[in-house]
Amino acid sequence: MDSPINDPVNEQSAATLATELAAPTVSRAYRCQCGRPVFLRNSECLACHTPLGYVIDRLGVMPLAPAEGGGALPDTFTVFGDPHGKTYRRCANLMTPAACSWMVPAAREGEEAPADVHGLAPGYCLACSVTRTIPDLSVEAHGVFWGKLEQAKRRLISQLLALGLPVVSRHADPVHGLAFDFLSNMPGGPHVMTGHEDGVITLNAEEAEDAVRERIRAEMREPYRTLLGHFRHEIGHYYWDLLVQPTHWLDDYRALFGDERADYAASLQTHYEQGPPPDWADRFVSSYASTHPWEDWAETWAHYLHMADTADTAMSFGVDATNVELTSDLFTADDLSQPDHPDAAKFLDFINGWVLLTNVLNELSRSMGQPDYYPFVLPRAAVGKLQFIHRVITEQRAGSAPTMVVASDVAATEPEPAEPAPEQTQTQTQSQGGAQS
């Protein structure tokens, strides 16, 4: 019998934020078996020292117990309170600078390997298996950079799984799978550009240095620049290729975002030479979104992920925004791209709940003398685009596609060499980044 601890199926989040806010995924509040709150980064409860780990089956951080009886192997665990349930091992990156606390499905003695490990690098969890290249750890500070990058990526992957989006490693699908290259600038070499191309997301590892990232943010006149923001933007390009371009969504996408067949390189050049159009704030979530329809999609996608995860977290911890004084008007059905959609009212509640929540979060930031938590003003034109992304994601979640595809699920493709496991890629290779940034 499954343990009810942190079980998203059994757990009911208390909707104390506001009746207007209906978060679309699962609880972000995790608890140890002793009742103390624990967090996504934890591998052990600091109060009672119970081992903890992120378990994909439960979509959360779970207290663990050593596996016992029934062919249990050394160094394997079950979820606390479920001694006869599935067994797991620690990810091989637990004791590396990546400090990964995720669990890997493991077999008991005499059993075949679980089906959901066939798409993973041997010994590694899903989040680490999609990392293809890590920074050169012989360089001082690169270990710290790698740890920060992986921490942000684990937050991303956990949200994608909760949303029901496919997360497929290149070990499972060498053609359409996802891979991350964390590179840094080499003396005399080309500058590493953050970007996406054909499922490979490249990030300049030096942006894990706060001072470097803040300098770039100021130079680019951006209101917001974080590692998690980079991940959410670039993964948007990946899912456009996967969920929009080859599907029935393409015509609706073009009606809202524009025709992606416009010259991308020329659009980038125009943006950097002339800046955004004067009315960009009335039509886009950010100035960069005005560059090209691909970038409008990726920026809006990233905003949706920001909103969904923050709303889930706020609701999970009982944040209440009902008494906030609004600095802007709420949105109406006229702002939606599909006001007659069966899910339109629920989505509108979510958007307006977000407006209430960000007013509270911004006031909290100001009370500490910090910049606004959410330094954006959503234009009405962007709300319809956000609804479109919401529809794409909810249709995907409602479908039969698994969140993690294993090798046996992948259609036959031309054989290609398997990607090396993360520990085999510590010698950095150089890349110019992806075609999309």
From TrEMBL:
Segments traversing the membrane: none
Organism: Variovorax paradoxus (strain EPS)
Biased composition (Low complexity): 411-430
Record region (Disordered): 408-437
Protein name: Zinc-ribbon domain-containing protein
Stored Pfam families: Peptidase_Mx (PF15887), Zn_ribbon_DZR_6 (PF10005)
Zinc-ribbon domain boundaries: 30-138
